[in-house]
Design brief:
about 500 residues
Length: about 500
Protein backbone atom coordinates (compact mmCIF):
# COMPACT_ATOMS: atom_id res chain seq x y z
CA UNK A 1 0.00 0.00 0.00
CA UNK A 2 1.23 3.51 -0.80
CA UNK A 3 1.63 5.93 2.12
CA UNK A 4 -1.60 7.79 2.95
CA UNK A 5 -1.20 11.49 3.84
CA UNK A 6 -3.70 13.18 6.16
CA UNK A 7 -5.23 16.28 4.56
CA UNK A 8 -4.69 19.36 6.84
CA UNK A 9 -6.49 21.93 4.67
CA UNK A 10 -5.26 25.22 3.26
CA UNK A 11 -5.33 27.06 6.58
CA UNK A 12 -6.10 26.35 10.16
CA UNK A 13 -9.73 25.42 10.79
CA UNK A 14 -10.78 26.30 7.24
CA UNK A 15 -12.75 23.10 6.94
CA UNK A 16 -10.92 21.90 3.84
CA UNK A 17 -8.81 19.17 5.48
CA UNK A 18 -9.69 15.52 6.30
CA UNK A 19 -12.17 14.90 9.03
CA UNK A 20 -10.83 13.63 12.29
CA UNK A 21 -12.16 10.16 11.49
CA UNK A 22 -10.66 10.08 7.99
CA UNK A 23 -7.32 11.25 9.36
CA UNK A 24 -7.38 8.54 12.02
CA UNK A 25 -8.22 5.88 9.40
CA UNK A 26 -5.23 6.95 7.29
CA UNK A 27 -2.96 6.98 10.34
CA UNK A 28 -4.13 3.49 11.39
CA UNK A 29 -3.63 2.13 7.85
CA UNK A 30 -0.08 3.50 7.73
CA UNK A 31 0.71 2.07 11.18
CA UNK A 32 -0.88 -1.31 10.29
CA UNK A 33 1.31 -1.61 7.19
CA UNK A 34 4.41 -0.73 9.24
CA UNK A 35 3.52 -3.33 11.90
CA UNK A 36 2.83 -5.88 9.16
CA UNK A 37 6.05 -5.24 7.23
CA UNK A 38 8.33 -4.71 10.23
CA UNK A 39 6.72 -7.04 12.72
CA UNK A 40 3.98 -9.56 13.35
CA UNK A 41 1.09 -7.09 13.00
CA UNK A 42 1.14 -6.66 16.79
CA UNK A 43 4.75 -5.82 17.65
CA UNK A 44 7.60 -4.14 15.80
CA UNK A 45 10.33 -6.83 15.54
CA UNK A 46 13.27 -4.42 15.16
CA UNK A 47 15.27 -3.36 18.24
CA UNK A 48 18.00 -1.12 16.92
CA UNK A 49 18.77 0.79 20.07
CA UNK A 50 22.04 2.61 20.59
CA UNK A 51 25.67 1.54 20.15
CA UNK A 52 25.51 0.59 16.47
CA UNK A 53 28.97 0.48 14.86
CA UNK A 54 30.11 0.54 11.23
CA UNK A 55 29.90 -2.77 9.37
CA UNK A 56 27.22 -4.27 11.60
CA UNK A 57 24.11 -5.90 10.17
CA UNK A 58 20.64 -6.72 11.48
CA UNK A 59 20.44 -10.24 12.91
CA UNK A 60 17.51 -12.15 14.34
CA UNK A 61 17.71 -13.00 18.05
CA UNK A 62 15.38 -14.29 20.76
CA UNK A 63 16.96 -12.60 23.81
CA UNK A 64 15.84 -10.52 25.58
CA UNK A 65 12.93 -10.82 23.14
CA UNK A 66 12.47 -11.94 19.56
CA UNK A 67 13.62 -9.16 17.23
CA UNK A 68 16.17 -8.02 14.65
CA UNK A 69 19.10 -6.33 16.44
CA UNK A 70 22.45 -4.92 15.40
CA UNK A 71 25.17 -7.61 15.21
CA UNK A 72 28.50 -8.36 13.69
CA UNK A 73 28.56 -9.64 10.10
CA UNK A 74 31.25 -12.28 10.86
CA UNK A 75 29.15 -14.32 13.25
CA UNK A 76 26.46 -16.78 12.05
CA UNK A 77 23.52 -17.59 14.24
CA UNK A 78 22.23 -20.29 11.91
CA UNK A 79 23.22 -22.55 8.98
CA UNK A 80 24.70 -20.88 5.90
CA UNK A 81 22.74 -22.33 2.96
CA UNK A 82 24.36 -21.40 -0.37
CA UNK A 83 21.43 -23.01 -2.24
CA UNK A 84 23.35 -23.68 -5.45
CA UNK A 85 25.70 -20.71 -5.08
CA UNK A 86 29.43 -20.68 -4.37
CA UNK A 87 31.82 -19.03 -1.97
CA UNK A 88 34.25 -17.31 -4.33
CA UNK A 89 37.02 -14.73 -4.40
CA UNK A 90 37.34 -12.64 -7.53
CA UNK A 91 40.73 -11.30 -6.53
CA UNK A 92 44.02 -12.79 -5.39
CA UNK A 93 43.06 -12.98 -1.71
CA UNK A 94 42.89 -16.33 0.04
CA UNK A 95 39.61 -17.90 1.16
CA UNK A 96 40.29 -18.72 4.82
CA UNK A 97 38.19 -20.99 7.05
CA UNK A 98 39.69 -20.30 10.47
CA UNK A 99 38.92 -22.35 13.59
CA UNK A 100 40.34 -20.54 16.63
CA UNK A 101 39.31 -23.25 19.08
CA UNK A 102 39.92 -27.01 19.23
CA UNK A 103 36.90 -28.06 17.18
CA UNK A 104 37.23 -29.83 13.82
CA UNK A 105 36.64 -28.27 10.42
CA UNK A 106 34.38 -30.89 8.82
CA UNK A 107 33.69 -31.40 5.10
CA UNK A 108 30.19 -32.85 4.98
CA UNK A 109 28.55 -34.20 1.78
CA UNK A 110 25.95 -36.74 0.78
CA UNK A 111 23.29 -35.90 3.34
CA UNK A 112 23.20 -36.46 7.10
CA UNK A 113 25.57 -38.70 9.03
CA UNK A 114 29.15 -38.60 10.19
CA UNK A 115 31.63 -36.26 8.48
CA UNK A 116 34.43 -38.60 7.38
CA UNK A 117 36.58 -35.86 5.78
CA UNK A 118 37.73 -33.17 8.20
CA UNK A 119 40.62 -31.06 9.51
CA UNK A 120 41.34 -32.32 13.05
CA UNK A 121 41.13 -29.49 15.59
CA UNK A 122 43.70 -31.20 17.82
CA UNK A 123 46.58 -31.45 15.37
CA UNK A 124 45.44 -29.51 12.26
CA UNK A 125 45.80 -32.57 9.97
CA UNK A 126 43.43 -33.34 7.09
CA UNK A 127 41.86 -36.75 7.71
CA UNK A 128 39.36 -38.85 5.80
CA UNK A 129 37.67 -42.24 5.92
CA UNK A 130 37.32 -44.16 2.62
CA UNK A 131 36.86 -47.93 3.28
CA UNK A 132 35.73 -49.41 -0.05
CA UNK A 133 34.41 -52.98 0.32
CA UNK A 134 35.81 -54.43 -2.93
CA UNK A 135 37.98 -53.35 -5.85
CA UNK A 136 34.81 -53.04 -7.93
CA UNK A 137 33.52 -50.35 -5.53
CA UNK A 138 36.42 -47.98 -6.28
CA UNK A 139 35.51 -44.93 -8.42
CA UNK A 140 36.73 -44.54 -11.99
CA UNK A 141 40.55 -44.24 -11.87
CA UNK A 142 40.68 -41.99 -14.94
CA UNK A 143 38.52 -39.31 -13.31
CA UNK A 144 40.25 -39.62 -9.90
CA UNK A 145 43.93 -39.50 -10.85
CA UNK A 146 46.17 -39.31 -7.74
CA UNK A 147 43.43 -40.38 -5.32
CA UNK A 148 44.31 -42.65 -2.39
CA UNK A 149 41.84 -45.28 -1.16
CA UNK A 150 41.62 -48.40 1.02
CA UNK A 151 39.84 -51.65 -0.04
CA UNK A 152 38.64 -53.67 2.91
CA UNK A 153 38.20 -56.89 0.93
CA UNK A 154 41.91 -57.03 -0.05
CA UNK A 155 43.32 -55.26 2.99
CA UNK A 156 45.40 -53.00 0.72
CA UNK A 157 45.81 -49.32 -0.08
CA UNK A 158 45.65 -48.12 -3.70
CA UNK A 159 46.38 -44.96 -5.69
CA UNK A 160 44.89 -44.00 -9.06
CA UNK A 161 47.40 -43.65 -11.91
CA UNK A 162 47.30 -44.14 -15.70
CA UNK A 163 43.58 -45.04 -15.61
CA UNK A 164 44.18 -47.89 -13.14
CA UNK A 165 44.23 -48.52 -9.38
CA UNK A 166 47.79 -49.43 -8.31
CA UNK A 167 48.21 -51.37 -5.01
CA UNK A 168 50.70 -50.17 -2.42
CA UNK A 169 53.13 -52.69 -0.96
CA UNK A 170 53.01 -53.05 2.84
CA UNK A 171 55.26 -54.79 5.37
CA UNK A 172 52.93 -57.80 5.58
CA UNK A 173 53.38 -58.70 1.90
CA UNK A 174 56.05 -60.95 0.41
CA UNK A 175 58.87 -59.61 -1.74
CA UNK A 176 57.41 -61.78 -4.53
CA UNK A 177 54.83 -59.06 -5.32
CA UNK A 178 57.63 -56.91 -6.83
CA UNK A 179 57.66 -56.99 -10.64
CA UNK A 180 61.44 -57.55 -10.88
CA UNK A 181 61.57 -60.42 -8.36
CA UNK A 182 61.05 -64.00 -9.62
CA UNK A 183 61.20 -66.63 -6.88
CA UNK A 184 59.76 -69.42 -9.05
CA UNK A 185 63.11 -70.26 -10.72
CA UNK A 186 64.28 -73.85 -10.14
CA UNK A 187 61.26 -74.64 -8.00
CA UNK A 188 61.73 -71.69 -5.65
CA UNK A 189 64.43 -70.71 -3.13
CA UNK A 190 66.08 -73.16 -0.74
CA UNK A 191 67.66 -72.63 2.67
CA UNK A 192 70.73 -70.39 2.55
CA UNK A 193 70.15 -69.01 -0.94
CA UNK A 194 70.11 -65.28 -1.75
CA UNK A 195 68.52 -63.08 -4.41
CA UNK A 196 70.87 -62.25 -7.28
CA UNK A 197 70.33 -60.04 -10.30
CA UNK A 198 70.00 -61.93 -13.62
CA UNK A 199 70.38 -59.45 -16.50
CA UNK A 200 69.00 -61.81 -19.16
CA UNK A 201 65.74 -62.14 -17.21
CA UNK A 202 65.75 -58.54 -15.89
CA UNK A 203 64.86 -59.94 -12.48
CA UNK A 204 66.18 -60.90 -9.05
CA UNK A 205 66.24 -64.72 -8.75
CA UNK A 206 67.21 -67.16 -5.97
CA UNK A 207 70.79 -68.49 -6.18
CA UNK A 208 73.52 -69.88 -3.93
CA UNK A 209 75.40 -67.42 -1.72
CA UNK A 210 78.98 -67.46 -3.08
CA UNK A 211 81.26 -65.96 -0.43
CA UNK A 212 84.73 -64.48 -1.00
CA UNK A 213 87.85 -64.80 1.14
CA UNK A 214 87.62 -63.77 4.78
CA UNK A 215 83.98 -64.87 5.05
CA UNK A 216 82.66 -61.43 4.24
CA UNK A 217 80.72 -62.43 1.14
CA UNK A 218 80.59 -60.68 -2.19
CA UNK A 219 83.57 -62.55 -3.60
CA UNK A 220 84.22 -63.38 -7.24
CA UNK A 221 81.54 -65.69 -8.75
CA UNK A 222 82.86 -69.25 -9.00
CA UNK A 223 81.76 -72.47 -10.68
CA UNK A 224 81.74 -75.07 -7.90
CA UNK A 225 80.79 -78.72 -7.56
CA UNK A 226 78.26 -79.31 -4.82
CA UNK A 227 78.12 -83.12 -5.20
CA UNK A 228 80.95 -85.61 -5.79
CA UNK A 229 80.34 -89.10 -7.16
CA UNK A 230 82.73 -92.06 -7.01
CA UNK A 231 82.68 -95.53 -8.48
CA UNK A 232 80.42 -96.25 -5.56
CA UNK A 233 78.59 -93.72 -3.43
CA UNK A 234 78.18 -89.92 -3.54
CA UNK A 235 78.59 -87.01 -1.14
CA UNK A 236 76.98 -83.56 -1.16
CA UNK A 237 78.35 -80.51 0.60
CA UNK A 238 76.18 -79.69 3.62
CA UNK A 239 77.73 -76.33 4.47
CA UNK A 240 79.67 -73.52 2.86
CA UNK A 241 82.84 -74.67 4.63
CA UNK A 242 82.32 -78.43 4.27
CA UNK A 243 85.44 -80.63 3.70
CA UNK A 244 85.95 -83.33 1.05
CA UNK A 245 88.51 -85.99 2.05
CA UNK A 246 90.42 -87.68 -0.78
CA UNK A 247 91.70 -91.01 0.57
CA UNK A 248 93.78 -93.51 -1.35
CA UNK A 249 92.56 -97.06 -1.78
CA UNK A 250 94.55 -100.25 -2.32
CA UNK A 251 98.10 -99.47 -3.60
CA UNK A 252 97.13 -95.75 -3.83
CA UNK A 253 98.32 -92.87 -1.64
CA UNK A 254 97.31 -89.18 -1.74
CA UNK A 255 99.26 -86.11 -0.72
CA UNK A 256 97.99 -82.50 -0.49
CA UNK A 257 100.60 -79.71 -0.66
CA UNK A 258 99.27 -76.19 -1.05
CA UNK A 259 96.77 -76.28 -3.89
CA UNK A 260 98.24 -79.50 -5.36
CA UNK A 261 96.83 -83.01 -4.89
CA UNK A 262 99.28 -85.82 -5.71
CA UNK A 263 98.01 -89.36 -6.24
CA UNK A 264 100.69 -92.09 -6.14
CA UNK A 265 100.52 -95.79 -6.90
CA UNK A 266 102.27 -97.68 -4.10
CA UNK A 267 101.97 -101.17 -5.64
CA UNK A 268 103.85 -102.95 -8.49
CA UNK A 269 103.06 -102.38 -12.17
CA UNK A 270 101.94 -105.46 -14.06
CA UNK A 271 102.47 -106.45 -17.73
CA UNK A 272 102.78 -103.28 -19.82
CA UNK A 273 101.36 -105.10 -22.85
CA UNK A 274 97.58 -105.19 -22.62
CA UNK A 275 94.70 -106.28 -24.82
CA UNK A 276 92.93 -102.98 -25.56
CA UNK A 277 89.62 -104.77 -25.96
CA UNK A 278 88.33 -108.15 -24.99
CA UNK A 279 85.16 -108.76 -26.99
CA UNK A 280 83.22 -106.63 -29.47
CA UNK A 281 79.68 -107.49 -30.48
CA UNK A 282 77.39 -106.43 -33.31
CA UNK A 283 73.80 -107.02 -34.36
CA UNK A 284 75.03 -110.40 -35.55
CA UNK A 285 78.15 -112.13 -34.22
CA UNK A 286 81.01 -111.15 -31.90
CA UNK A 287 84.82 -111.06 -32.01
CA UNK A 288 87.41 -111.41 -29.25
CA UNK A 289 90.94 -110.05 -29.29
CA UNK A 290 93.46 -112.87 -29.43
CA UNK A 291 96.71 -110.89 -29.22
CA UNK A 292 97.85 -107.55 -27.88
CA UNK A 293 98.15 -106.32 -31.48
CA UNK A 294 94.86 -107.66 -32.74
CA UNK A 295 92.95 -105.52 -35.30
CA UNK A 296 89.25 -104.85 -35.61
CA UNK A 297 87.96 -103.85 -39.05
CA UNK A 298 84.75 -101.82 -39.60
CA UNK A 299 83.16 -102.81 -42.91
CA UNK A 300 80.10 -101.14 -44.37
CA UNK A 301 77.08 -103.17 -45.45
CA UNK A 302 74.41 -102.41 -48.04
CA UNK A 303 74.10 -98.62 -48.43
CA UNK A 304 76.75 -98.06 -45.71
CA UNK A 305 80.37 -96.92 -46.07
CA UNK A 306 83.05 -96.48 -43.40
CA UNK A 307 86.11 -94.26 -43.16
CA UNK A 308 88.86 -94.23 -40.53
CA UNK A 309 91.01 -91.13 -40.22
CA UNK A 310 93.20 -89.96 -37.33
CA UNK A 311 91.56 -92.26 -34.85
CA UNK A 312 88.01 -91.31 -35.87
CA UNK A 313 85.66 -93.66 -37.70
CA UNK A 314 82.92 -92.19 -39.87
CA UNK A 315 79.90 -94.34 -40.79
CA UNK A 316 77.87 -92.95 -43.69
CA UNK A 317 74.44 -93.93 -45.00
CA UNK A 318 74.99 -93.91 -48.78
CA UNK A 319 71.30 -94.50 -49.52
CA UNK A 320 69.48 -92.25 -47.04
CA UNK A 321 65.81 -92.81 -46.48
CA UNK A 322 63.43 -90.06 -47.65
CA UNK A 323 61.25 -88.69 -44.88
CA UNK A 324 57.62 -88.72 -45.99
CA UNK A 325 54.32 -87.63 -44.49
CA UNK A 326 51.98 -90.55 -45.12
CA UNK A 327 48.55 -91.70 -43.93
CA UNK A 328 48.59 -95.18 -42.42
CA UNK A 329 44.81 -95.59 -42.12
CA UNK A 330 42.06 -94.48 -44.53
CA UNK A 331 38.44 -94.33 -43.34
CA UNK A 332 35.17 -93.93 -45.24
CA UNK A 333 31.56 -93.29 -44.32
CA UNK A 334 31.65 -96.86 -43.19
CA UNK A 335 34.68 -99.07 -42.65
CA UNK A 336 38.41 -98.28 -42.74
CA UNK A 337 41.66 -99.75 -44.09
CA UNK A 338 45.09 -99.80 -42.45
CA UNK A 339 48.24 -100.36 -44.55
CA UNK A 340 49.77 -103.75 -43.80
CA UNK A 341 53.10 -103.12 -45.52
CA UNK A 342 55.25 -100.32 -46.94
CA UNK A 343 53.93 -101.12 -50.44
CA UNK A 344 50.24 -101.62 -49.56
CA UNK A 345 47.74 -100.21 -52.12
CA UNK A 346 44.56 -98.24 -51.35
CA UNK A 347 41.95 -98.55 -54.12
CA UNK A 348 39.38 -95.73 -54.52
CA UNK A 349 36.38 -97.25 -56.30
CA UNK A 350 33.29 -95.43 -57.51
CA UNK A 351 29.82 -96.33 -56.22
CA UNK A 352 26.46 -96.03 -57.93
CA UNK A 353 26.61 -93.21 -60.47
CA UNK A 354 30.28 -92.46 -59.60
CA UNK A 355 33.48 -93.29 -61.51
CA UNK A 356 37.10 -92.68 -60.44
CA UNK A 357 40.26 -92.23 -62.51
CA UNK A 358 43.92 -91.67 -61.52
CA UNK A 359 46.26 -89.88 -63.90
CA UNK A 360 49.70 -89.08 -62.59
CA UNK A 361 49.17 -87.58 -59.14
CA UNK A 362 45.56 -86.55 -59.85
CA UNK A 363 42.43 -88.43 -58.71
CA UNK A 364 39.28 -87.53 -60.64
CA UNK A 365 35.81 -88.45 -59.24
CA UNK A 366 32.99 -88.13 -61.78
CA UNK A 367 29.21 -88.16 -61.31
CA UNK A 368 27.76 -90.26 -64.13
CA UNK A 369 24.10 -89.66 -63.24
CA UNK A 370 22.72 -86.88 -65.42
CA UNK A 371 20.21 -84.57 -63.80
CA UNK A 372 17.32 -83.34 -65.92
CA UNK A 373 16.85 -79.66 -66.72
CA UNK A 374 14.28 -77.95 -64.55
CA UNK A 375 12.30 -74.73 -64.47
CA UNK A 376 11.88 -72.34 -61.57
CA UNK A 377 9.54 -73.78 -58.94
CA UNK A 378 9.96 -77.39 -60.08
CA UNK A 379 11.23 -80.19 -57.83
CA UNK A 380 13.50 -83.17 -58.58
CA UNK A 381 11.69 -86.45 -57.88
CA UNK A 382 13.24 -89.93 -58.10
CA UNK A 383 11.07 -92.30 -60.08
CA UNK A 384 12.92 -95.45 -59.02
CA UNK A 385 15.71 -95.33 -61.58
CA UNK A 386 16.46 -91.62 -62.15
CA UNK A 387 15.48 -88.08 -61.24
CA UNK A 388 12.91 -86.05 -63.14
CA UNK A 389 11.70 -82.45 -62.78
CA UNK A 390 8.02 -82.14 -61.87
CA UNK A 391 5.74 -79.26 -60.96
CA UNK A 392 4.69 -79.01 -57.28
CA UNK A 393 1.94 -76.99 -55.52
CA UNK A 394 4.36 -74.33 -54.27
CA UNK A 395 3.46 -70.68 -54.80
CA UNK A 396 5.90 -67.79 -54.28
CA UNK A 397 5.03 -64.36 -52.87
CA UNK A 398 7.78 -61.73 -53.12
CA UNK A 399 7.72 -58.86 -50.60
CA UNK A 400 9.40 -55.48 -51.22
CA UNK A 401 8.90 -51.96 -49.85
CA UNK A 402 9.54 -48.39 -50.99
CA UNK A 403 8.77 -46.91 -47.56
CA UNK A 404 7.68 -47.92 -44.03
CA UNK A 405 3.93 -47.77 -44.76
CA UNK A 406 3.25 -50.68 -47.15
CA UNK A 407 4.62 -53.98 -48.38
CA UNK A 408 4.57 -54.37 -52.18
CA UNK A 409 3.63 -58.00 -52.89
CA UNK A 410 4.10 -59.72 -56.28
CA UNK A 411 3.65 -63.32 -57.45
CA UNK A 412 0.88 -65.81 -56.95
CA UNK A 413 -1.37 -63.73 -59.19
CA UNK A 414 -1.05 -60.46 -57.19
CA UNK A 415 0.89 -57.21 -57.56
CA UNK A 416 -0.26 -54.57 -55.06
CA UNK A 417 0.44 -52.82 -51.78
CA UNK A 418 -0.62 -54.85 -48.71
CA UNK A 419 -3.05 -57.07 -50.71
CA UNK A 420 -5.16 -59.82 -49.16
CA UNK A 421 -3.48 -63.17 -49.98
CA UNK A 422 -5.70 -66.23 -50.57
CA UNK A 423 -4.07 -69.58 -49.77
CA UNK A 424 -5.30 -73.12 -50.47
CA UNK A 425 -5.28 -76.00 -48.02
CA UNK A 426 -2.56 -78.52 -48.85
CA UNK A 427 -0.49 -76.00 -50.87
CA UNK A 428 2.99 -74.81 -49.88
CA UNK A 429 3.67 -71.07 -49.99
CA UNK A 430 7.04 -69.35 -50.20
CA UNK A 431 7.21 -65.88 -48.62
CA UNK A 432 10.35 -64.16 -49.97
CA UNK A 433 11.17 -60.96 -47.97
CA UNK A 434 13.59 -59.00 -50.19
CA UNK A 435 13.70 -56.09 -47.67
CA UNK A 436 15.86 -58.13 -45.28
CA UNK A 437 16.24 -56.91 -41.69
CA UNK A 438 14.84 -53.46 -42.57
CA UNK A 439 11.26 -54.82 -42.56
CA UNK A 440 11.19 -58.28 -40.89
CA UNK A 441 8.13 -60.20 -42.14
CA UNK A 442 6.07 -61.97 -39.46
CA UNK A 443 3.29 -64.47 -40.29
CA UNK A 444 0.86 -64.11 -37.37
CA UNK A 445 -2.55 -65.38 -36.26
CA UNK A 446 -3.54 -61.73 -35.66
CA UNK A 447 -1.99 -58.26 -35.76
CA UNK A 448 0.78 -58.23 -33.14
CA UNK A 449 -0.12 -61.82 -32.17
CA UNK A 450 1.74 -65.11 -32.11
CA UNK A 451 3.32 -66.80 -35.14
CA UNK A 452 1.34 -69.10 -37.45
CA UNK A 453 2.01 -72.72 -36.52
CA UNK A 454 4.07 -74.69 -39.05
CA UNK A 455 6.05 -71.80 -40.60
CA UNK A 456 9.77 -72.27 -41.21
CA UNK A 457 12.64 -70.07 -42.35
CA UNK A 458 13.77 -66.51 -41.52
CA UNK A 459 11.66 -63.35 -41.21
CA UNK A 460 14.49 -61.44 -42.90
CA UNK A 461 14.70 -63.74 -45.97
CA UNK A 462 12.52 -66.73 -46.99
CA UNK A 463 9.76 -68.46 -45.02
CA UNK A 464 7.68 -71.53 -46.01
CA UNK A 465 4.17 -72.48 -44.89
CA UNK A 466 2.17 -75.54 -45.93
CA UNK A 467 -1.50 -74.80 -45.28
CA UNK A 468 -2.98 -77.56 -43.06
CA UNK A 469 -5.96 -79.44 -44.54
CA UNK A 470 -7.91 -79.10 -41.27
CA UNK A 471 -8.10 -75.28 -41.37
CA UNK A 472 -11.63 -74.00 -41.89
CA UNK A 473 -12.32 -72.03 -45.02
CA UNK A 474 -12.39 -68.34 -44.22
CA UNK A 475 -9.75 -68.59 -41.48
CA UNK A 476 -7.92 -65.29 -41.57
CA UNK A 477 -4.31 -64.65 -40.56
CA UNK A 478 -2.06 -61.60 -41.11
CA UNK A 479 1.38 -60.78 -42.43
CA UNK A 480 3.01 -57.84 -40.63
CA UNK A 481 6.32 -55.98 -40.31
CA UNK A 482 7.73 -56.47 -36.79
CA UNK A 483 9.14 -52.89 -36.81
CA UNK A 484 6.43 -50.93 -38.69
CA UNK A 485 3.01 -52.21 -37.63
CA UNK A 486 1.15 -50.43 -40.46
CA UNK A 487 2.87 -52.64 -43.04
CA UNK A 488 0.38 -55.53 -42.94
CA UNK A 489 -2.23 -57.45 -44.86
CA UNK A 490 -4.61 -60.43 -44.46
CA UNK A 491 -4.05 -64.10 -45.35
CA UNK A 492 -7.36 -65.92 -45.99
CA UNK A 493 -7.69 -69.71 -46.19
CA UNK A 494 -9.95 -70.94 -49.06
Amino acid sequence: MAKQTIGIGSAANDGTGDTLRDGAIKANSNFNELYEKLGNQTDILFDIGAGITEGQVLKWGTSPSAAFRAGNFDTLTGNLDTNGHQITSDGTDNIVIYQTGTGDIKLWAGGSGSAYTYIDGDDGYLKWYAPYATLGDLPDATNHHGMLAHVHGTGKAYFAHSAAWVPLVDENQSITVLADVDTTVNGGPSDGQVLKWVASASAWQPANDLQGSGGGGGGTTQNLFETFTGDTGTTTASAANDTLNIVGGTNISTTMSGDTLTINMTGTLGDLDQNVFTTLGADNGTTTATTTTDTITFTGGSGISTNLNAGAITITNDSPNVVQNVLQTAAGDSGSYTAAAADSTLTIAGGTGITTAVSGSTLTITNTVALPSAQEGQTLVHNGSSFEAVATPCINFEFSASDSNNYTVTGGGVSANDPTLYVYRGFTYRFDNTTGSGHPLALRVSAGGSAISGTTGSQSSVQFWTVPMNLAAGTTYVYQCTIHGNMQGNIVVV
